[in-house]
Amino acid sequence: MPEIAREHRATLASDPLRLRKARRWLMRLVLDAGFPPGEAHDLALAFSEAAANIHRHAYGGRRDGRVDLRVTIDDERVVVAMEHDGLPFNPDRYTPPDLGRPSEGGYGLFLIASLVDQVSFEGAGCGGRVVLVKRKRAVDLRVETQQQGVNMSQNRTNRAETDGSGETLPDLAELCRIHEIGLDLIGRSHDVDELLDRVLDEYESRLAALPSDALDARVGGPQPDSARKLRGLVMFATQAAALKEKAVVAGELKRRAAMLEEANTRLVAALDEAERSRARLDGVLAALSSGVMILGTDGSFLTANAAARSLAGATDDTALARIIAGNVPRESEGEIELPIADGGRRALLVARRAMSGDPGSEVVLVTDVTQRNRAVEERVRLEKLAEVLKTLSVLSHKINNPLTALLGRAQILQANRSSDPGVAKAAAVIEEASLRIAELIRELAQVVRDGHQDAVDELLDMRAPTSATGKRR
Amino acid sequence: MRVHVVREGKVARLSVTGCDAIDGANAVQLKSEALRLLGEVPDVVVDLTGVDFLDSAGVGVLVGLFKNSRLRGGRARFCGVTPGVRSVLELIQLDRIFEIYDDVEEAVRS
Questions:
Q1: CB-CB: which of A52, A115, A173 is closest to B82?
Q2: Residue B23: its chain A contacts at CB < 8 A?
Q3: pTM to 2 decimals?
Q4: Which CATH number is B50's domain given?
Q5: Which letter, b or e, does each residue of A189-209 get, where b requires 16 or more Cβ atoms within 10 Å of its Cβ?
Q6: Which residue of B has its CA nearest to A47?
Q7: Which site from A179, A226, A294, A303 is most exposed, i.e. has the minimal number of CB atoms within 10 Å?
Q8: pLDDT in the model for residue A169
């Protein structure tokens, strides 16, 4: 059943400078009656255009003309009647604007007709009357309130659906304007959340200012005027709460997005640093003359530097792992010999070490010890040669003494002519043999001094056999 | 109400402070002041942030700025359009003719 209509009256001057106050008064009445903010805005704009037309056309620009205003509101519609003493308006002379060609004027009546459900112009002779009718589109207040709580702009007329972004701040700005909350709040507030807090504070103060009968159900429920105010406040609170909820969600999303962005930045920096470390490690491995190979926990090949491949003469990684690690037990070291292209052999020292920081994995160090082994063999050979020379020197010295005596006696026997011819002949044989022994000793000493190593090697037979060996550490 | 014009390169940025409405009460003064400050500058960005009520007189101001720029071979761009202002522009279909951007930076860059 329609509510009993309430009527409000006011008298205005046809002065554009005073029109804003009347416009806000009208909007407050309509909002308090439970009309949606968008419809209240539309009606206020239509009223503003009608008042401007009265000033401009009925009163010819005079600012002292009288306009009697009567606003009738029930729960289904608002009727705004504006009576004046100026020239009446003739609708027949109205020409709609060409919307395809922007103009600096001529939109007033078009806006009025578009914004309200009904407009009429009455008058004859001196004086006229303009009547605007705006119907409430959503009859069920609860549904309307819920919808507006989600997005106020969607409950405006179809032509002004939304700003497309669903942003909270524009909605809030409109909410503040409709409810005459100072727009300076927006300027002073640094974020939506703070702004909503201010709006809710305003709501609380308005609630406190309500007449006592507004909340008193003992005397037959709230009185109609108070009920309308309550209804407006409930809608206001619902809208503000919904906007705040959106703001909280948006704030949380923004905060989480910032956290993700920060974490991503740190991760990218860490990956960059890891990449730089890996590049440095690759550079170090490439610069090493020794071979380095990394084996996994199951002994499988992971990586190796170029030197390891070169030393092993391996054509693929599997062969490399087999050649290098296959002959040396885990966590031990040993030497292996490999044939090389020129027909010789290469000796490699292989050391398998547990890798710190990666349990189970191993780092294998490969060193070419061919030259070192040759140097050791040469030193041993020279030491043996020195011993031989020393022995030869001693032997020569020790042989020379008896040999000199023997040779002397043989020569004495040959010089003694009275001796038996057989004895003289034997003495000659002894002398010749002694001279040959002395010559052999001199030749042997000369060979050693001249470094005829082949002869010495043949003499000493110093060649030593080589073989792969492995020993536990 | 005060009209501010700031030059940013070849573009003049125009904004209004001290008033949340462009209507019959201030339209004539606003248009006159804006055109005086803009002078010969053809390209203008009109920042409507803070203006949430626009009537037909206010529409006339915006159309005047739009035409003034076109006459000088430039462009007028609009930004900071609040829902209340946007609904009026859409009703008159000026949103199809005006260049409207979300914020000043985007409008200046365009």
A1: A173
A2: 16, 19-20, 48, 52
A3: 0.45
A4: 3.30.750.24
A5: beebeebbebbeebbeebbee
A6: B55
A7: A303
A8: 46
